[in-house]
Amino acid sequence: MENTIKLLRKLRAFGRATAANVAMMFGLSLVPLALATGAGLDFAHAMMVRENIADALDAAALAVGAAPNTANAQAYAQQVFDANYTADKAANGAGQMANPQVAAPMITNGTVSLTLQQPFQVKTGLLGVIGKTNLPVQVSTTVKWGQTKLWVALVLDNTGSMSQTDSTGTSKISALQTASHNLLTTLKGAATNEGDVKVTITPFAKLVRIGSASVNQNWIDWTDWALQPVNYSGTSDALGASGFYGPGDKCPWTTGTDGFSCDTQPEGSSTATIPSSGTYKGYICPGVMQTYDAATGSGGHHHEGCYVATKVTGTTVNVATGSSASCSGFVNSCTCTGSGSSKVCKAQKWTYAWTVNAHALWTGCIMDRNKKNDNGATGDFDTQNDSPAAASGSLFPAANDDSCPATQVLPLPLNWTSAQWTTLGTTIDAMTPNGSTDQTIGLVQGWQTISNSTPYSPGALPANTTQYMILVSDGLNTQDRWYGDGSNQAAQVDARMAIACTNAKAAGVIIYTVFVDLGGTQGNSTVLQNCASDSTKYYDLTSSNAIVSTFNQIGVQITNLRVSG
Fold it and tell me: How many Å apart are CA 347 and CA 267, to the nearest integer?
């Protein structure tokens, strides 16, 4: 019995003992704990490799997006990927190539997508104990153009010299049209949503054309329109107190001497004699100016009015004296008396009333706005984007001029639709070379198109929107409203432009300038170089076809490629 009791005590003591059991249980638990820790390390390593792959894949996609026309986009993507992949090559799974392999890029309108050809196998550590020797990693990325909204003003030279061709026979205007179409394609593709990217076009020469539909707008300045011509020759053959020109007589002005000729009627064709019948009988209409005048604009400017001749009954006036005097060119009661140095020829006397042309004859062109103290102007509005106000002299001066682009400014519509891209293309196709060069008016009007001010008033600039201007010109500034002869570089025009460039950049507009100088014959354009926002945004081109590649480069830069997913 005693032995039995001792045995039972020992069994109870064994049941209560814990030291050996804990040790055994702890030992058994080390196996899953070790596996869990190893798995965590393996998964963490795989995630690190995945991040490295994603970064390198982003870089490759961005590179392909910046050069989407690369001949072998897949090889190019792999090259960029390899240069950016920094993972531990020794950690690659068995049979795996040194680097992940990039699949062929998917390039669609506005996006580039990249993925791996197959999941990348990352070699494991402790997970290999249970047979999991590799962890698969798959990565894909997409880059998208234009996640920042853009307002882009294309300011395009339409002057006569744009018809010039380079050694390949390509004209500057045709290359500009091709380049502009390509740029529009890039910009359109950059828009995630319709209206994220908006474009204006400002063709320019000495003037810009905003369109005759604005004839009744209160921001048009008709001051210059109403000005009378001046007596260029300073001789008695100009209209004035002598008054001896009437219906049927010769034109009182000599082209090349007085600077302009006679027209058959307001905005009519040239004539050698004053109309003697019909609606415009006795109308003496000055034709297009041939020489420079600070008061009314330079060569090519049209005077918008006519002198209407009224007979002074019973009164004659001397038209010529001396031995060579004659009534040649005068048909109204002209007679000569005397001989030799005493010979005198007299003709009917007339008085003249200046009659301003109807505004309906305006062709829709405007010239530089007033600078300080012109017509009561209080500021240099030719270099600003201010809304016009009559009291300040800042209205837009109407002018008919032979140096006005055929194509008018295309501003931003208040409601942008996909149809606007077609309208932009049509406007580009309509551009025709004509006239002399005033880059200042093109720049200022282009700036005006992306400013919420009259006359274009596109609405307030949306949040997160960048304003760009691309100014293209093939020549030096030769003429504006006040300065230059239309043929030679005018330092005064450059000076006005420099002020306008500074103002636009200060307002936040990023400016690209492109100088098309075939063969490099004109040298550098300092004013265009200084106008660009920085040195990387100025291009000096020596061939027409270079316009196309330059526009492609600018398009990629301003559409701001970014990773979107």
Answer: 28
Output DSSP code: residue 288. B
Distance (Å) of CA 439 to CA 27, 234, 397, 432: 87, 34, 17, 16
For residues 251 and 121, give the distance between their C-alpha atoms in angstroms, rounded to a whole number.
93
CA distance 324 to 317: 17
The CA distances from residue 310 to 251, 331, 469, in Å, are 16, 15, 54
Beta bridge partners of 538: 513
- Contact by Cβ (8 Å): 77, 61: yes
SS (HEC) of 57-84: HHHHHHHHHHCCCCCCHHHHHHHHHHHH
* Contacts with 257 (C-beta within 8 Å, 6 or more apart), sequence order: 232, 233
Q: Which of 172, 211, 181 is nearest to 199 (CA)?
A: 181
C-alpha to C-alpha distance for 426 and 177, rounded to whole angstroms: 10
Tell me the two tokens of residue 159: 């002057």
pTM of the model: 0.74
Q: Cα–Cα distance between 81 and 22 in angstroms, integer?
A: 53
In tens, the pLDDT along 282-314 reads 999 988 887 655 444 566 888 899 999 999 999
Model pLDDT for residues 60-69, shown as the tens digit of each residue: 887 787 666 6
| CA angle, 119 then 120 then 125, to 5° | 125
* SS3 at position 488: coil
Is residue 301 within 8 A of residue 232, CB to CB? The reply is no
Give how far Cα 222 sits from Cα of 133, 216, 225, 431, 494, Å.
86, 11, 5, 27, 26
Question: What are the structure tokens assigned to 517, written together?
Answer: 């100088």
Residue 127 CB contacts under 8 Å (≥ 6 apart), including other chains: 35, 38, 39, 42, 133, 135
pLDDT at 9: 60
Report pLDDT for 237.
44
Rounded distance between C-alpha atoms, residue 96 and residue 53, angstroms? 15
Asked whether 119 and 139 are in contact (CB, 8 A), the reply is no
* CA 47/CA 410 separation, integer angstroms: 52
For the chain, the residue count is: 565
Angle, nearest 10°, between helix axes 546-558 and 172-190? 20
User: What pLDDT was estimated at residue 126?
Assistant: 67
Residue 79 Rama label (left phi>0; alpha psi -120 to 50; beta): alpha
pLDDT along the chain (565 residues), means of 10: 53 52 48 54 78 83 72 85 74 63 81 83 72 78 73 96 90 94 90 90 97 97 86 49 85 76 93 96 89 58 91 92 94 94 94 93 96 89 94 93 95 94 97 95 98 93 92 91 86 95 96 87 86 94 90 85 54
Phi, psi of 478 (to 5 degrees): -120, -15
User: Closest by alpha carbon to 102, among 55, 51, 60, 64?
Assistant: 60
Structure tokens at 437: 């060069």
Report the alpha-carbon distance of residue 199 to residue 446 in Å, rounded: 10
